[in-house]
Amino acid sequence: MSTNRKRIYLLDEIRGLAIILMVFYHAFYMLGTFFEMDFMLAAQKFFEPLQPPFACLFILISGISCNLSHSNFVRGARLLAIALGFTLVTAVVLPKFGIDGAQIIFGILHLLSVSMLAFALVRRPISKIPPAVGSAVCMVLFFVLYGVPSGNVFGLALPRELYLNSFTAALGFAPAGFYSADYFPLIPFLFMFFAGTFVGRFVLSGDLPEGFYKRRCAPLAAVGRKTLIIYIAHWPIIFLLGLIISKI
Known about the structure:
Blueprint: H1 9-33, H2 38-47, H3 51-65, H4 72-96, H5 108-126, H6 131-144, E1 152-153, E2 156-157, H7 166-171, H8 186-204, H9 218-224, H10 227-247
Helix pairs in contact: 1-2, 1-3, 1-9, 1-10, 3-8, 4-5, 5-8, 6-8
């Protein structure tokens, strides 16, 4: 891998913007839901339509970045351990302190980690697929299967026998009563991630317009390079903030 590759600051900046918006959305949700701040709940409802596109943008860029990594298997395994730690804390530890409804069973970290591992396994065989074809097919599959977690595809109901337990929920087939405060199942979001991996092969060529390599906002780019740390830290910080505000 060449050490002379120019840094794509635009990707850092977009990723930074996406994580900032995600933090604000989670703040609105947590402060509104767990601390009953009506104005925060209203803000969360107002910005709710923007959450899916910005989350998809974050997932797409994560897929693109896989082409720039030395070892997606190591990255994926490490991230999966962190994601499972989130599940342990939110689903097992917090309820013991009377905090219910915060469990993250299969959130965005779970999705990204499993997607990285899957990409590490199939990277070589799918490298034979032209990037334009691969990204187009993945995007089509994403939109076709977008309704799977809701139980339908283009309005056609899927068999309820598919929706069994937490394991099928990870795939996108969540049973009745399943709840995850942050929920990004493999179907359809794995296809958005893989669309990014195909786009990333074009990015890797270094033939992007010069504007991609230009730094426009250094703080935003810096945030975009620390998204994992920010994601891990923002949950307890927001919760602590809610506790402080509720005592005032």
